[in-house]
Amino acid sequence: MSSSVVAKEQAKAEKQKRFLEKKAKQEQAAAAAPPPKAKDKKVKKPAAVDAYEPKKIEEGRYEWWEQRGYFAPQFTPEGEVKKAGKFVISIPPPNVTGSLHMGHALMIALQDTMIRRARMMGMTTAWIPGCDHAGISTQR
Fold it and tell me: What are phi and psi of 85, to 5 degrees?
């Protein structure tokens, strides 16, 4: 063989040797490295609804309040006002003849919240929604 062919073969052998050494180092590094973490699956959030759905949101809540007697008047066994006192809301709801708006709903919601809180604190409460001070429309 000629010297140029031998030189080419030696260069080729050296290149192959470097390649195998590099490959061996990469395999050792991969074996020593911790396994890659599994990607967490994304939790899909429920799609937003365009409107309030009271049946879905309020399911079971009304029954919970009734079971605990939060709607029942609470007096002493003798029928007297409790020692904690009384809490009364006497402002009537809006007239039916008027145009209802969100302010009316807010007013009713706030009164309901205050009465329930007072009742849970042990007070005798009175709030009778639906009795209009000009009751012609509502009482008919």
Answer: 110, -170
